[in-house]
Amino acid sequence: MTARTSDNSLTDTASQLRNAIVRTSRALRQDAAGETGLSPATTAALASIGRSGPLTPSELAEIERVKRPTMTRTLACLEREGLIERTPDPADGRSSLVAVNEAGREHLARLRRRKSAYLARRLRKLDPAEVETLARAAELLERIREDERG
C-alpha cells in the first residue's frame, strides 16, 4: 500500500469512525435522558465534576468549554436537583469548589448502568466475532485517547 493510498484510507476510516462514535454517543445520551430531567450539557458537567472534582466553577467551565456565566446556571441547576455540594475554595475565598455528593454519584451510576444496558441490548444482536471486534475496537480507542494525553 502506498503512502498516498494509506493516507486516503486513514482519512476515510477516521471519518466513518467519527460518524459512528457521534451517532452512538447521541443515541446513548437520548436513551439516558428518558430517566432524568437534566439536559445533556448538565449531565456532562455532573460527570466532569465526578471525574475531576472538586473543581472551581471556572475550572469546570474550561473543561466543558463554556463561558463562566453558562456554568454558573448549570451549577445552579445541579444544586437545585441536590446532586452537588459547594465548599469554600481554600485557595481563593471569593470562589467555591463543587463536588458530586452521594445523590449525584448514585445518579451518575444509574445513567452509566442505563447506557451500558442500551449497548448490551444491541450487542446481543451481533454474532460473537462481531462482539469481539468491537471489544478490540474499544481497546484501541482507549489507546488512541491515552496517546493523546501522554
Name the beta content range: 5-15%
CATH architecture: Orthogonal Bundle
- Count of DSSP strands: 2
Helical segment tally? 6
Percent helix, as a range, is over 70%
- Provide the domain count: 1
Q: How do the strands line up in the largest sheet?
A: 1-2
Q: Could you name the CATH class?
A: Mainly Alpha
Order of helices and strands: HHHHEEHH
Mean pLDDT over the residues: 90
**CATH level-3 fold name:** Arc Repressor Mutant, subunit A
Compute the gyration radius: what is it? 19 Å
Coarse structural class:
mainly alpha
Topology:
Layout: H1 3-33, H2 40-52, H3 57-64, H4 68-80, E1 84-89, E2 92-100, H5 102-123, H6 128-149
Antiparallel strand pairs: 1-2
Short description:
The protein has 150 residues and is mainly α.
Can you describe this structure?
- The protein is mainly alpha-helical and 150 residues long.
- It has a single domain, classed as Orthogonal Bundle (Arc Repressor Mutant, subunit A).
- The protein has helices spanning 3-33, 40-52, 57-64, 68-80, 102-123, 128-149; strands at residues 84-89, 92-100.
- It has a two-stranded antiparallel ribbon with strand order 1-2.
- β1 and β2 form a beta hairpin.
- α1 packs across α5 (102-123).
- The longest helix is centred in the first third of the chain and has 31 residues, at 3-33.
- It is globular, with a radius of gyration of 19 Å.
- The two termini are 29 Å apart.
- The model has no long low-confidence stretch (mean pLDDT 90).
